[in-house]
Write a structure and sequence with these properties.
The chain is of the alpha/beta class. Among the domains are: 54-78 and 466-490, no CATH class; 275-440; 522-719, P-loop containing nucleotide triphosphate hydrolases (Rossmann fold, 3-Layer(aba) Sandwich). Helix content is 57%, strand content 10%. The strands form two sheets. The protein has a nine-stranded mixed sheet with strand order 1-9-10-8-11-7-12-13-6, with helices on both faces. Strands 3-4-2-5 form a four-stranded antiparallel sheet. Helix 22 links the parallel strand 12 and strand 13. Helix 3 (57-77) packs antiparallel against helix 13, helix 9 packs antiparallel against helix 12 and helix 11 packs antiparallel against helix 12 (350-439).
């Protein structure tokens, strides 16, 4: 099964003139030559490298085992260190009782952000707190921390004598311990939280736990002392400020009262001045007088109208008059008598006339009483009008007094504001002073932190970690030894190239041509006619690295950025190794393509002839057999003769392949004429003739003919087992001496 395959680098359509294609090929070689050449030169033979590593395995195993043993001894000889850990939670612990002036709902997170937590970490590591912790833990005189404990060693004495280091006695005990104290102390915030971890390390597990707990307790006490100092300094400042402020307030209030009395701005009820109260009273009295006047005038008018209409007795003021009621009663009695007497007496009777006269007199008295009521109301209206006039005059005068007193009140209000400000300030200071005095007691101002986890005596050492240390040391030594062996093999392989000509290192050589043994060099170079350009290579599939190395030595260095192109003539006969077999071997180690022009083959498949005619691209003609890595290009529909007849276009296409692959093999028939092979052989970096077995005179003749067409080395490829090539050379010489 044949599968179309794209080389992945570029697709070239061979169209147009030969000169244009050649120019483009040269430009591509110049642009990509350096990178492509270096990429091919840097490809490594992993199998050869692995074989070299196995060959030098003792160089890797010995240091690794030594590192394991040394690390085991080291972790058991190093004194163990234990770490005690205490954790502190930073939070606002003020409450309503410790800080009455603030809200109890204040969040503790507002006080300690990330910067605040880092600040508290630095406070715990401060030198003042360190000195206090050193005293409480008792590190002075401890040989683990105090360099001055015990006698000086001989080395330290020599250092002191020559001035390299100072004598421990020249420093205070706490200063001697500080350096070692900070080496054994670790303070850090725990994750994204307000928890601070305090770790203290010592050879003594009890001392490690005690140190962590003591440092945490000392920090809390320092925080409480700082708060008490703040409250004490605040109360001291307030005590010196309150007394002068009280005197200033008394002076301001005295100025207010003096100015008030001097300007007559005395305050009455409802905190208003006398003039303002008088103005208010006059306004109220004036309103009442006007109401009385209007009421009296209205009543008088109503009574007069009622009198004119004869409805005097319907007026409430007239009807309610005591005299009028008596007169009305008398009139009723007289009318009753007149009615009684009229039954017996005539109207001209004296008795009737007397009674009528009395009745008329009563009517006159009633009218007079009504008129007196009207006059009384009118008099009351006049009196109310006079009162209105007097109140209006008094009100106008009081307004003038009030307006004249406004300027004085403005000054008075300014004095009152100043006095009120001083009073508020004094009250605030007095409240703060009482709060500060309340906080200036023990446990009244708790620290803004608390210990949430106290250190316990550790049972496992924190250093050294025996198993991890041994594993890391062993693995590190193993990797270093492995890298050293691999680097040595690679460097030796690069250095083994001959000095006379740069040696190309193809990707399948496995890190470069290694040092060859003398017998192999002699075999590769043996059979040497035509100036040593004709050699012998044994194709041994059981030892492919050696075969491919021999092949690399028989190939000239290609132009920079190009892959080597090799002409392979198929002259081995039936059953011998073919050019296709050699290409398969190369494809296992690098990117290799074979242009198969030995026979026409299947003319139904597109091939090189279609590429030259511009009817197909590389991706259309490159095929790969299933399960194989070898890329192949056939002759195409027109056959191999059409391809070999256009050497210029073939050269352009081969240049493109050399830019893409690591090896390009052009397989041709050993019976082709020299004129046909000359253009291809002239630009090749090597020539191979598949001879099969020794004694193949046709292959030897083809090799000689090929060596005349190219300046590159030419070699015969023999099948294993390797045999002497001298007999084949003698046969070829006898063939040349025979007459035509």
């Amino acid at each position: 099964m044949m599968v179309a395959f794209s080389p992945g680098r570029r697709e070239v359509s061979v169209k147009g003139s030969v000169m244009t294609a050649q120019t483009e090929s040269q430009a591509r070689a110049e642009n990509h030559g350096r990178d492509a050449g270096e990429a091919r030169g840097d490809m490594l033979d992993l199998a050869a490298l692995w074989a070299a590593i196995k060959h030098r395995k003792l160089w890797i195993i010995t240091p690794t085992v030594a590192a394991l043993g040394l690390s085991f001894v080291a972790v058991n000889l190093i004194p163990a260190r234990y770490t005690g850990e205490a954790r502190i939670l930073l939070e606002n612990r003020d409450s309503f009782y410790t800080r009455p002036g603030q809200s109890t709902g204040e969040s503790s997170g507002q006080q300690f952000d990330s910067e605040g937590v880092q600040s508290q970490v630095q406070v715990i590591m401060s030198r003042d707190l360190a000195r206090e912790a050193i005293k409480r833990i008792g590190l002075v005189g401890n040989s683990e921390f105090d360099a001055g404990a015990g006698a000086l060693s001989a080395l330290k004495k020599i250092g002191v004598m020559i001035g390299i280091g100072g004598h421990p006695a020249d420093r205070s005990p706490e200063e001697r311990v500080l350096e070692k104290y900070y080496d054994r102390l670790l303070v850090y915030p725990v994750g994204r939280s307000r928890i601070v971890s305090v770790e203290f390390t010592s050879h003594d597990p009890e001392l490690a736990a005690k140190g962590a707990n003591t440092i945490a307790s000392t920090y809390l006490e320092a925080q409480e002392a700082a708060k008490q100092d703040t409250a004490r300094s605040a109360s001291s400042w307030l005590s010196t400020t309150i007394e002068p402020l009280r005197k200033r307030l008394a002076e301001a209030e005295a100025k207010v009262e003096e100015y008030r009395s001097r300007n007559g701005l005395l305050v009455g009820a409802n905190n208003t001045t006398i003039t303002s109260q008088q103005l208010t009273d006059l306004s109220a009295q004036l309103s009442a007088a006007r109401s009385q006047q209007a009421e009296a005038q209205a009543k008088a008018g109503l009574i007069r109208d009622a009198i004119k209409q004869g409805r005097t007795f319907e007026i409430p003021d007239v009807a309610n008059n005591e005299l009028v009621r008596r007169l009305i009663e008398q009139r009723v009695n007289l009318r009753a008598q007149i009615a009684l007497e009229s039954r017996n007496l005539l109207s001209e009777h004296p008795r009737i006339k007397e009674l009528n006269a009395q009745l008329a007199d009563l009517e006159g008295q009633l009218r007079a009483a009504s008129e007196r009521a009207v006059r009384t109301l009118e008099n009351e209206a006049k009196i109310a009008g006079q009162r209105v006039e007097s109140f209006t005059a008094a009100l106008d005068g009081q307004k003038k007094n009030v307006s004249s007193a406004n300027d004085s009140e403005v000054q008075l209000r300014a004095l009152e504001r100043e006095a009120r400000t001083l009073r508020d300030q004094l009250e605030q200071y007095m409240q703060r002073y009482r709060e500060a005095m309340a906080r200036d007691t023990q446990n009244a101002a708790p620290a803004d932190a608390r210990i949430i986890s106290r250190a316990v005596e550790p049972t496992e050492p924190s250093f050294p970690k025996k198993i991890p240390t041994m594993v890391v040391a062993t693995l590190a030594t193993f990797m270093i030894a492995l890298a050293a062996v691999a680097s040595r093999e690679l460097l030796n392989g690069q250095a083994g190239a001959p000095s006379g000509k740069p040696q190309r290192t193809p990707g399948w050589v496995g890190g470069g041509t290694t040092a060859r043994t003398d017998p192999r060099r002699e075999r590769v170079a043996g059979l040497l006619t035509h100036g040593g350009r004709l050699g012998q290579i044994t194709l041994d599939l059981e030892r492919p690295e050696e075969t491919l190395a021999d092949l690399a030595e028989r190939i000239d260095e290609p132009p920079r950025g190009m892959a080597p192109m090799v002409v392979v003539l198929d002259g081995g006969g039936d059953g011998a190794t073919t050019a296709r077999d050699l290409a398969e071997l190369l494809s296992q180690r690098c990117r290799c393509i074979i242009v198969d022009l030995v026979v026409d083959g299947d003319l139904s498949q597109p091939g090189f002839s279609e590429l030259l005619a511009g009817e197909a691209l590389f991706s259309d003609i490159i095929t790969r057999a299933e399960g194989s890595r070898l890329h192949r290009i056939g002759p195409g529909h027109a056959g191999r003769d059409a391809v070999l007849a256009a050497p210029d276009l073939v050269e352009v296409a081969l240049d493109a392949l050399c830019e893409t692959y690591d090896w390009v093999l052009v397989a041709a028939a050993s019976s082709d004429d020299s004129a046909v092979l000359a253009p291809i052989a002239g630009r090749a970096q090597g020539g191979l003739v598949m001879a099969g077995q020794v004694g193949n005179g046709h292959a030897v003749e083809a090799a000689y003919r090929l060596s005349d067409l190219t300046k590159a080395p030419v070699a015969l490829v023999l099948d294993a087992p390797t045999v002497n090539f001298a007999g084949a050379v003698a046969t070829m010489r006898q063939h040349d001496e025979e007459p035509a």
